[in-house]
Amino acid sequence: MARELLSALCLVAVLEGLFLFLTPDGWKRTAERLYVLSTGQLRVFGAVVVALGLLSLWAVRG
Asked: What pTM was computed for the model?
């Protein structure tokens, strides 16, 4: 289980780095947009992303 979690975290790092490498200006624009959101809006956005990730994982692994 720990090995799978570590592998998943490594894959996240690879994807994050790939997006930064391919579209650095897009990432800057996105960060600027996120900066103006309130803490509550960011929490809701984060909760939605977590829920979608868990549902996707459940669908793929289930």
From this structure: 0.71
